[in-house]
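Suppose you are handed a protein chain with no further information: no name, no annotation, nothing but its sequence. What can you learn? This example shows the usual starting point.
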Amino acid sequence: MSGRMSIFFLLLLLLVPLADAKNKKKQMLPDYVLKAQTILVVIHPEAGEPLTSPMANRTAQEDVEKAMMKWGRFNLVTDAETADLVVAVRKGHASGATVRNSPVDDRPVIYQPSGGDVRAAGQHGRPPDLTDGGATDREPHVSNEIGSSQDAFEVYRGRVQYPLDAAPVWRYMAKDALNGPQVSAIEQFKKAIDESEKLRQVKP
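A reasonable first move is to predict its three-dimensional structure. Written in structure tokens, the prediction is:
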């Protein structure tokens, strides 16, 4: 009988850490994300433009910027040196012919009032200073890619050299996650920030 009890308690001890791990809350975002005030939104350097929708990534970038302005937590900036965070967006598409380094992603400076807000955007569609390999193979060309059908929204730490060469601190991927006007990727990012701030308040 005692042998059976010992085995029971041993199994119980082994199961407790698993239960704790299952119930553990999501990892908190680092302080620099919660304290960030400025943000730069760019098209991911590896993003391709489907031939059937050559403005897909540019449109996603603008929809994300507009949703960020509506949120009001961050100030949009036009260069990496003043950005506390860098958000890289990439529109999902079916496999097939795509245009890499599309010139439509390198946009001119604009001044765009939007519902009382003002959006000033510089030429930062695919800035070469965000990744060490960004300055190579910059010519537009058509290629056949097997890409993800899901949209990608990735958050990187700003104010560092080549921010996109590091792993993203937060990522969200889902179908149509970058579609405006209510960008679901930003809604999920809001939730992640809210959860992290609540956890910090109760953390001893």
